[in-house]
Design brief:
single chain; about 250 residues; mainly alpha; globular; signal; Lipoprotein
Length: about 250
């Protein structure tokens, strides 16, 4: 059944038109990053841009869903530290000086960029003793064997793939914000309301995509894919606010 063009949906489509240039191509660009750009995104705080952070690389491995890349991963990254390290990397991605490409965490936590990050980490020269971090990061992963040269030019992500990637990220951020509120017993009516709207909106946007797919509406699907990317940005801001409020309550 076709979903009518309600006022919120019409407003959302109007906002999409204004933000189209800024959002076009945000997702799926991680494969095209240079080594320098990837290193800058994942570099250790207080160290030169080229020093890829071992914790960040292991975090990408944990979230990649690739069994080969996850082989030998410290157990902490399969437990509580998995969410903790994601929050750290997400904080870096929120920094426009690090992430001018506006990439999402899910863009980086894919097999190809994760494997490249592992190789960059393995190739780093050792730090002089005086420059070693006060707390040593988890041991670096074993370098993956070099893959055969692939001359095939990958096809860009489809609209559905971009949408699914953003929708998954949106759902994770909204649920994570809700869990923080519940664990910290945060008594903030405004944040609680916004988090509940975030969770509800994540479900609604999936329902709208299902309707557009059933109607075979290419324009509608494209608009919703970009809408989901906008919603991810808002959810990232909301999660940061919830985390700050929970930290202040401690």
């Amino acid at each position: 059944m076709e979903i009518p063009m309600t006022y919120p949906r019409l407003a959302l489509s109007t906002a999409l038109g204004l933000c189209l240039a800024a959002l076009a191509g945000c997702s799926g660009k991680a494969d095209g990053l240079t080594d320098a750009e990837l290193s800058k995104l994942l570099h250790t705080e207080g160290q030169p841009d080229y020093r890829v952070d071992a914790d960040a690389v292991n975090c990408l491995r944990a979230w990649s869903g690739d069994g080969q890349l996850q082989s030998g991963l410290p157990e902490a990254y399969l437990g509580d530290h998995k969410d903790e390290c994601r929050r750290t990397v997400q904080g870096w991605l929120n920094d426009a000086t690090r992430n001018p490409q506006q990439l999402l965490f899910t863009d980086l936590a894919k097999s190809k960029p994760t494997e490249r990050a592992m190789k960059l980490l393995a190739a780093l020269p050792a730090l002089p003793a005086a420059e070693q971090p006060a707390v040593a990061p988890p041991p670096p992963p074993v370098a993956a064997p070099a893959a055969p040269v692939n001359t095939f030019e990958p096809v860009g992500e489809t609209t559905e793939q971009r949408f699914n990637s953003s929708a998954e990220e949106l759902d994770h951020l909204c649920q994570q914000a809700r869990q923080i509120i519940e664990r910290s017993q945060l008594n903030n009516a405004d944040l609680t309301r916004r988090v509940n709207e975030c969770v509800t909106g994540a479900g609604e946007i999936r329902a709208q995509m299902s309707a557009e797919t059933a109607n075979n509406s290419g324009f509608g699907k494209s608009a919703l894919a970009k809408s989901s990317q906008m919603a991810v940005r808002s959810a990232q801001v909301l999660l940061n606010e919830v985390q700050r409020a929970a930290d202040a309550k401690r």
